[in-house]
Amino acid sequence: MSILLKHPGESSNDDLPPEGKAAAHSRRTFLFQLSLALNGAVGIVLAIPLIGYLLGPAMKKSSTVGAWLKLGSVDDFPVGETRLTDFQSPVASLGDGETAKVACWVRHISPRQFQVFAINCAHLGCPVRWFAQSKLFLCPCHGGAYYEDGARASGPPERGLFEYKYKIAGGSLMIHAGDMPTLATEASCDKKRLIQIDGAETAS
Amino acid sequence: MSVKERVISGGIAGYRWLEHRLGLIQPLTQAAEHPTPSNSASWWYVFGSAATVLLILQVVTGILLALVYSPSANEAWASLQVLNHNIPLGWYLRAIHGWGSDFMVAIVLIHMMQVFLFGAFKFPRELTWIIGVGLLVLTLGMAFTGQVMRFDQDAYWGLGIGASIASRVPLVGAPLVHLILGGPILGAPTLSRFFALHVFVIPGILIGAVGLHVWLVLFHGVSDWPMPGRLVRKSTYELQYHELTEKTGLPFVPDAAWKDAMFAAAVILAVLACAFFFGPFGPTGQPDPTIIQTAPKPDFAFLWIYAVLAFLPPEIETPVMLVVPVLAIAAMLLLPLFAGEGERHWARRPVAVLMLTVIAVSLGIFTHLGTYTPWSPIMSAWTSDPVPPKYLRGRGPLEHQGALVLQDKQCRDCHSLDGAGGLRGPALDDIASRMTEDQIVRQVLQGGGNMPAYGNALNPSETKALVSFLTTLRGDNLAPAVDASRTLTRNP
């Protein structure tokens, strides 16, 4: 601080009588407190949109996110086999590039019975791989293993693989996809129903 | 007046003009020359300044990388390829930034260990330590978000791991996942927000906190060398420190600072050398989630966490994941408040030394495990590692058939034979000397103890063949395992 600057006690109202100084001081103190209150109020008004913007993505209910999409023709998946396929995420956003693609495992059990597993391990989300010979899904990260029906076999996962809801409509396999599957976000929402066309079947 | 005198007087006039308007040169010079106890002008006291110099290196190289890097999910990976291959010295800048990051994490940890061992966090430097803990967290935050910037397969699945950990938080798991990802899936908004964290938010806080940390070092003075028996007391310490600096004080610059400067130069040189000889980190494969032939792995600083997550039993994993980090950071923050007085010398603080040793050794072991992930199945072992011929010699057709089953059913992905194969399950070289035939059958069909059940994947003839092969594996001709109860029931 510059030596030329006066301390408050020596400033411009030096020539005021003590009562005048006190009055001026208490008036300024009040105005300063008023300015603090005003800035607090402005701060709150400012904070609402800022926090709202920041928390925007967290506010969407995960059960409403997602859409039905066609995974392929039923004939693309031979009965008795589990095959890797992928689709474009229905909730992709601008500039996602390759990350908008989602892989999944399709198990065709019997002509009208499927299981569609998320690629993400239920432990920490790494991509699981199917081994047809030993009928196991294995995770490369921490060694989680699942049976052919997605049930937990061994390792750190506490549950089986995440499953997408599916329907067969007009010879096509449809799944409902939305959130990236984690323990808190489901692979597919349960609120939206597919509009029933040409006798679509529902399966859980 | 000679030319020389003119130049000098001109220089002095220039200095006076500047300092009269700036007012910073004099106080900064005084701060630089502040007296420090002669016993703390030591090579042990150089790590903090080295970490600061590394931070400056990271800021400079980071800005230079940002000139080319595209923080967009569909271009980031390609822009790193451009940096690596098309921009002159782009690879070297990436390498310096990457190695600088590893060095910074290491130096910050060493600095923290030294301060802990020397008891330098005690009165009156408690707040210096607390801010230092914040700096450690911020440095690790930079390392994690920096790994995301590489936006390759490791970064993509690493973010997935982060989101999966967040999804385990009770009640707010789903909103938290969406907050981290910036939307329902991992994509463009995810990279953008991690870019904002890595480039604006964390560095901003980090630089401010470093400034505060350095101010506190100046305010309280560099801590004196600990002596056994010289106790820290709130009533006397500051007076004693003042006397010590009066008696033995040296101006920090240059008498102590030359060691800091030498060490900082050596560290920067080491970063430059590592960057030159070992090159940049990645990027690994492109961030395409449909390419699943990948074994994601975090960077060096987080390998130990990756390892711990493999070993936690499922029942306690979520509580441990969510509670232990909070407790660990809280313990570090509260340390100086509970141990702010007393003995500083390590020889008189056995619990502190033991704790530090246990933590350091544990982190070292987990990091080492993280480098070769013995818990992960080796997905290609069943096709790449044939059954060693010595294990087929003298075996009959059924056993040969069993060896085929062993290969075909991917047993080698988790079990090794003759050192080749996965390490998740026990090696099978001497399995028959440890398990009886009945036990092997049960283990294969029903699984258990971290092994899946193969009852559905094996038909009876395959099981028979596999088990008959396994019963021939007795290591160096050890005795076969026997069921003691059987001999008892047969020969009462």
Task: Walk me through what this model shows.
- The complex is a heterodimer of chains A (204) and B (492).
- Chain A has 1 helix and 11 strands.
- Chain A is α+β, with helices and mostly antiparallel strands and 204 residues long.
- Chain A folds into 2 domains: 9-59; 62-120 and 162-202, Rieske Iron-sulfur Protein.
- In chain A, the strands form 2 sheets. In chain A, strands 1, 2, 3, 4, 9, 10 and 11 form a 7-stranded antiparallel sheet that branches.
- The relative contact order of chain A is 0.14.
- Residues 191-204 of chain A have low confidence and may be disordered.
- Chain B has 3 domains: 1-32, no CATH class; 38-372, Up-down Bundle (Cytochrome Bc1 Complex, Chain C); 381-490, Cytochrome c-like domain (Cytochrome Bc1 Complex, Chain D, domain 2), CATH 1.10.760.10.
- Chain B contains 20 helices and 4 strands.
- In chain B, the strands form 2 sheets. In chain B, strands 1-2 form a two-stranded antiparallel ribbon. In chain B, strands 3-4 form a two-stranded antiparallel ribbon.
- Classes of the chains: A alpha+beta (204), B mainly alpha (492).
- Chains A and B meet through helix 1 and strand 3 of A and helix 7, helix 8, helix 9, helix 12 and helix 13 of B.
Uncertain runs of chain B with pLDDT below 50, 5 residues or more?
none
Along the chain, the helix and strand elements of chain A come as HEEEEEEEEEEE
Overall pLDDT of chain A? 86
Structural class of chain B: mainly alpha
Order of strands across the biggest sheet of chain B?
Answer: 1-2
Order of helices and strands of chain B: HHEHHHHHHHHEHHHHHHEEHHHH
What is the CATH class designation of the largest domain in chain A? Answer: Mainly Beta
| Count of separate structural domains of chain A | 2
CATH fold group of the largest domain in chain A: Rieske Iron-sulfur Protein
At the fold tier of CATH, the topology name of the largest domain in chain B is: Cytochrome Bc1 Complex, Chain C
Strand content bin of chain B: under 5%
Q: How helical, in percent, are the residues of chain B?
A: 55-70%
CATH level 1 class label of the largest domain in chain B: Mainly Alpha
So how many helices of chain B? 20
* Helix percentage range of chain A: 10-25%
User: Largest sheet of chain B, described in full?
Assistant: 2 strands, antiparallel
**What structural class should be given to the helix and strand makeup of chain A?**
alpha+beta
Which of globular, elongated, flat, extended, rod-shaped describes the shape of chain B?
Answer: elongated
Q: How can the largest sheet of chain A be summarized? A: 7 strands, antiparallel
